[in-house]
Each structure stands twice: as C-alpha cells, then as structure tokens.
Amino acid sequence: MKLALLQMQADLTTAEERLDALEAAMASAAAAGAGLLVAPELLLPGYNCPARHAAEAEPRGGPWEMAAADLARTHGVALVFGWAERDGEDVWNAATAIGPDGTVLAHYRKIQLFGEMERASFRAGDAPPPLFELGGRRFGLLICYDIEFPEHARGLARRGAQAILVPTANPAGYEHVQRLLVPARACENGAFVAYANYCGDDGGLAFGGGSVIAGPDGAVVAAAGTPPALIIAELPELGSYPAEAISAQLADLRLPDGA
Amino acid sequence: MKLALLQMQADLTTAEERLDALEAAMASAAAAGAGLLVAPELLLPGYNCPARHAAEAEPRGGPWEMAAADLARTHGVALVFGWAERDGEDVWNAATAIGPDGTVLAHYRKIQLFGEMERASFRAGDAPPPLFELGGRRFGLLICYDIEFPEHARGLARRGAQAILVPTANPAGYEHVQRLLVPARACENGAFVAYANYCGDDGGLAFGGGSVIAGPDGAVVAAAGTPPALIIAELPELGSYPAEAISAQLADLRLPDGA
Questions:
Q1: Position A256 in a domain
Q2: What span, in angstroms and rounded, lies between the C-alpha atoms of A158 and A142?
Q3: Is B202 a domain residue?
C-alpha cells in the first residue's frame, strides 16, 4: 500500500479553504496510487484558533464527516484527518479514519491534550486509541502529543497495530519529536509511524513541518522539509525488514513486580 | 558532576587485562575530575566468551567486587561496571555501582537477556532495576538490551531517576540503539542516559562503539566513534534545560482503561 501524508500550510483560515486543500491532495494522492492519506490535527477548523473550536465544532455524522467521506469515496482513497468534534456540551480534539467507500473505520478523541490552549478548548479523550483494518494491514490512531509518550504507541502495538497514524500540529522548536521520538516509537514497536504536520505560520504560531513516515527499523521511509508537501511512499511489508533491524521485540518484554 | 564512559577494546582476554584497562581509565577519569565512570557490560570476564561466564563468575563480595572497590577508593571515583555474578548454581549478567569510598551503592541483574548465548549463559533478573544517590543526583541502572524497551527506563524515571547508566555490549549493525533509542529514552523521560559500549572484535563478534551520553532534550552531551575512547563530560543540571526541550512530561501521562 502507498501512504500519503499531507503537510498543509497552516494559515488557511476557513473550513472551506481547508477542505479545498484536502480535496486537491486527495486527487493527487489518488493519481499517485496512494491507498490512504493522513492530514494534520484539527484540519477543521484549524489549530491555532481557539475561539473557533467550540464555535464551529461539528458532531459525528455532521457536515465535516460527510464532506470527508465524500472526498474519500470520490477519489477512492482512505483518509485520516483531525477535527473539532462537538458532542452536546463537550468539544473534543478528534481524528477519524474513513475508508475508500466513505464508511467510518475508526474515531479517536485525543488523550494527551498539549498546553493551556488545548486544555481550555477540549475535553481529553478517555477511550483507548482505536485500530482499524485496511488493505490487509492493521492501523492505529493517535494525535500529536500522544506519540511522545511511549505508553500509547505501545498499547496500540500490543493490540496488533502494524502502522500508527498521527495527525499533528507540532510547532517549530519541537523538532525532536519528528527527528527522534517518532522514529523511536516505530523502532521499539516494530511498526510504521506516520506523522502529518503543518508548516508555516498560523496566527503567530510557527509550525515545523518535517512530516515523516518512520519504518520499523527506525529509518525514515519518507519525510518532508519545512515547505508545504505531499509525500507518498510505498509501505514495505513488515516481514521484509530483517529481524535484527527491529528493536526490543514485544514478545521479549519482561516486567518484574515493582519495576 | 563530570561523568566518564569507558569505551573499551573488546578483545582483552583475561580478567587481569581488563582490570588493568579499567584502572588506567579510572586514573584518567580521576585526573580529569570525573566523579563517576561507567564501563561496559560483562567487563569481567568479557562478553563473547560463553564458556568462561559460568567458569569464572564470582560472587557478590568476591574478588572482582573487591578489586573494583579498591579502584574506586584509590582514585576517589565512583564506578559502574558489568560482570558475571555467581550465586550458588545461578549465574547472572550483573552490574554494580560502587561509591568513591568503595561501598556498594547498587547491584542489578539484567532483566532482558539478549539472544541465545545470553539466555544459555545467564538467568534473567527478576528484581526491579535499582536506584542510588551520588553527588546529589539520583541514578538508575540498566544493562544493554533493557534500554531498548521503553518500560524499564520509564519505571526508573517514575521512581525518580535523573540519569540512567547502561553498561552495554552492542554489536556492530545495531547502531539504531545508540543513535535513536538511547536519546529517545532520555528525551521521553527528561533524564540523562549514558550508554558505555565496547569497540573492536571479540572472538568474531564486532562491536559498534558509539558510546553516548544523551541529555533530557534528546541531544548528545558527548559521544565516541568506533575506536577505543574515554569520554568525559559535565552533566548539566536538569533544571538548566528549557521545559519545552523535554518531551512527554511524566506528570502529563493519562492512561485510559484498556489502552
């Protein structure tokens, strides 16, 4: 399967502009033969616009999910994207996976909210990150700060994740995440990790780009620099990696009492 | 505090040769003002000599521990080193921390034995990795493969470790450990990780060198290449690192049921 990451310019201001950018990327991904595209965190309505999160958040099954499902179906490409989800009084920092036929495959509410803005805007998720099957592979979902904690990726790997998809909004100055922690999560779990970030400035907050797909050997499968980018790469079969390239086999783990 | 790592040539064959090399390193470390030296895994009697592990293993309080304590006391430098420990019928892949006055500060038996040779030679440890205090800092001990699993470093960090010391014997071809996983463990736990390896060939097994001290920001504090080396570096105060350089603050971790 070919996987596409959309590294989107952060300063698109309306949900319509953002859906247009997503549609262009979906069309390009389809033309390149990608089976799945991962877009950044809070693609809708945007990341650094706290006043708009609660004001514009949509429910599950609402117009944003419908628009995303239409794009997936139109282009025959599965899609993972972040969005502000309203459920009654609660607003969540969510991500949804949609299959190429437009059906919802998985929904996730971010567990590890980052910083004061997110904690003021969103309620933290309290359900385990979900898994879904696509193209004969098992994928897991996390969002941004979640991947910095080894526990969440490990939990997905224990439940069989072969690739972990991570919409993110990682500011400039935090490049240790895409340079170091994303490849480490891949290597220590023998799984792919795909991290789709913004670039450019969004209302005074600069994003670092550097979207990356890391392989189970910790090496970069594909990565973007700091400009806007669509990166598309074939995910090799996990079995094609030599066993010694994959670290800390989960089956080997021993935990003494009290450790 | 200045920390020294001894990256030792692997092919020294007798325990006496190895103690001589350790003594020379301790003298240099003392002259350079180091307060603590970390030596590789199974410094005594050696790594790739399985027939000698059971044959030469010494008990706690035996001649190897006494010799190491003498070196620490003579040079006024604390010491962490790996050795084959016999306790009745059991042989362990152990590491001991000895204070500058020659007292034993901590003892550890490797939990994650790596590969068939180690599993045939040693019993796996079943006690949590230990902590000890030195120079106003709290240190933890792991050995080699242990550090590739996020769980063991995390357990030490939860128990207050500010620096994790790791005697290792990491073969050439596994450089993703020192390049990626050691810095990631440091970054995700907001702690230093020091990884002291062999270099050169030991009975047909080539070691990769690359001994490294990684900081809580994931950056390299000091590192060796592939030749024999003694690296000595000041460990900055943890508080001197900006908060945004340290990832995934442990206090932030949330684990939903079933995750």
A1: no
A2: 15
A3: yes
pTM: 0.96
Q: What is d(CA A29, CA A231) in angstroms, rounded to the nearest whole number? A: 9
The values of phi and psi at residue A235, to 5°, are -85, 115
Which tokens sit at B205?
């097994």
CA distance B23 to B39: 11
Q: Is residue B257 part of a domain?
A: no
Strand, helix or coil for residue B233: strand
Q: Answer yes or no: A110 catalytic.
A: yes
At B14-42, the pLDDT tens digits run 999 999 999 999 999 999 999 999 999 99
Phi-psi region of A135 (alpha: psi -120 to 50; beta: other; left: phi over 0): left
Token pair 């700091």 in the structure block, residue: A226
User: B151, A259: Cβ pair inside 8 Å?
Assistant: yes
Partners of B160 in the β-ladder: none
Question: One-letter amino acid identity for A67?
Answer: A
Chain-chain contact of A181 with B256 (C-beta, under 8 angstroms): no
- Is there a domain that residue B241 lies in? no
| Complex prediction ipTM | 0.95
Testing the interface with B: which of A247, A249, A257 to mutate, by most B Cβ within 10 A? Answer: A247
CATH of the domain at A174: 3.60.110.10
Q: What is the pLDDT of residues B229-241, one digit of tens each?
A: 999 999 999 989 9
Q: How many domains does chain A have?
A: 1
Domain that holds residue B64: 2-236
E-strand stretches of B23-180: 36-38, 78-87, 90-98, 104-109, 131-134, 137-141, 163-167
Q: Cβ of B128 and A257 within 8 Å?
A: yes
Give residue-wise pLDDT tens across range A23-58: 999 999 999 999 999 999 999 999 999 999 999 999
Nearest to B235, CA basis, from B169, B186, B179: B186
CA distances from B25 to B30, B161, B254 (A): 8, 26, 44
